[in-house]
Write a structure and sequence with these properties.
The protein has about 140 residues and is mainly alpha-helical. It contains 5 helices and 2 strands, in the order H-H-E-E-H-H-H.
Length: about 140
């Protein structure tokens, strides 16, 4: 994917980066880096980037002039902070739901196996202790 943003933390200061990457340094009093990253990943901006990207030998590229021409909404810093907070909260929730889904899927497979094992052993019983009619049926 061309034009994909990545945040570089201050711990990476002084490190070299590949020549095909474009480094953006937003003005701290105007744009929050996490907000800019989120905007560059938004559907609307991605569409513009994808349309603008040029292909050379099958490799898509976008240059710094084309990036600078992008019309990115830029609300006040306090609004940017709130937008970033909401995005991060939503992604944290999605991560929790995904983890719960994965855990539930594993448990469900184990439950299915346990039920099948009980069925083959003839151990399925109703809540009153009686054998289930299907378990007693003759084949």
């Amino acid at each position: 994917m061309v034009g994909r943003p990545a945040l570089v933390e201050s711990s990476a200061v002084g490190l070299a980066f590949a020549g095909y990457l474009i480094r953006l340094r937003p003005k701290p009093n105007a744009v929050q880096p996490r907000f800019l990253s989120a905007m560059l990943q938004s559907t609307q901006i991605r569409k513009v980037i994808d349309i603008t990207a040029r292909s050379t030998s099958g490799v898509h590229n976008i240059n710094s002039t084309e990036l600078a021409a992008l019309a990115i909404p830029c609300p006040q810093l306090i609004e940017q902070q709130e937008i970033v907070r909401r995005i991060e909260t939503a992604f944290a929730w999605l991560d929790r739901v995904t983890a719960e889904h994965t855990k539930a899927s594993r448990l469900l497979r184990r439950l299915d196996q346990a039920i099948l094992a009980k069925a083959f052993r003839g151990e399925l019983v109703l809540s009153d202790g009686q054998a289930h009619p299907v378990a007693d049926a003759e084949l």
